[in-house]
Amino acid sequence: MRTLLGNLALAVGWAAITHFSVANLLVGFVLGYLILWASPSVAQRNTYFLRGRQLAGFALFFLQDLVRSTLRISHDVLTPAHRMTPAVLAIPLDARTDGEITFLALVVSLSPGTLALDVSSDRRVLYIHAMYAADPEAVRRGIKQGFERRILELLR
C-alpha cells in the first residue's frame, strides 16, 4: 500500500511540474512505477509490481476478448446467415466473495455476446446468457479458465 501511495505521489509530482492534466498524471504514474521498480530496495520486498503485471495481463486479455467478441457479433449482424445459438448457462464458481463474484459478472456482461443474469442463493453458480453457445462446455471453460482464473489471481 505504501508503494502505491508513493507511486501516486510521484505521479502528482510529475503532473505538478508539467502541465496538470489527466494525460500527464498517467505519464507520471507510469514513470513513477518504473522508478520504483528500478529501486532494488522497493522492488525486492513488494508484491505491488506483481499485481501491476497481473492487472496489465488481465487488461490485455479483456481487450483481446472484447475485440474478438465485437468482430464476431459484427460479422454475424452484417452477413445474411445468422450463426447465433443462444443459451442460458450455469457456470460453477470458484469465486467466493461478493467482490470477486461482482467483478466476474461485470466482466462477463461487458463482453459482447454474454450477459450475467443471476447468482444462485448459495453463491456457487453464476447464470449467464451467451449468444454463441453451440458448445456450452467450451463457453463454461472459456469463462472459468479465462476471466475467473485471472480475476482470482488478481484479487487474492
Defining traits:
single chain, 156 residues, 2 domains, 6 helices, mainly alpha
The span between the termini is 15 Å
Helix content: 55-70%
Q: Flag low-confidence runs.
A: none
Largest sheet: 3 strands, antiparallel
Count of the domains: 2
Q: Briefly note the structural class of the backbone.
A: mainly alpha
Q: Report the β-strand fraction as a percent range.
A: 5-15%
Overall geometric form: elongated
Q: What is the CA-based Rg, rounded?
A: 20 Å
Order of helices and strands: HHHHEHEEH
How large is the count of helical segments?
6
SS elements, strand count: 3
Arrangement of strands in the largest sheet: 1-3-2
How confident overall, as mean pLDDT? 92
Secondary structure: elements and pairs:
Elements: H1 2-17, H2 22-38, H3 40-43, H4 48-78, E1 87-92, H5 98-110, E2 114-119, E3 125-130, H6 136-155
Antiparallel strand pairs: 1-3, 2-3
Helix pairs in contact: 1-2, 4-6, 5-6
Structural description of this entry:
The chain has 2 domains: 2-43; 59-155, no CATH class. α1 (2-17) crosses α2 and α5 packs across α6 (136-155). The protein has 156 residues and is mainly α. It has helices spanning 2-17, 22-38, 40-43, 48-78, 98-110, 136-155, and strands at 87-92, 114-119, 125-130.
Describe the structure concisely for a colleague.
It contains 6 helices and 3 strands, in the order H-H-H-H-E-H-E-E-H. With 156 residues, the protein is mostly helical.
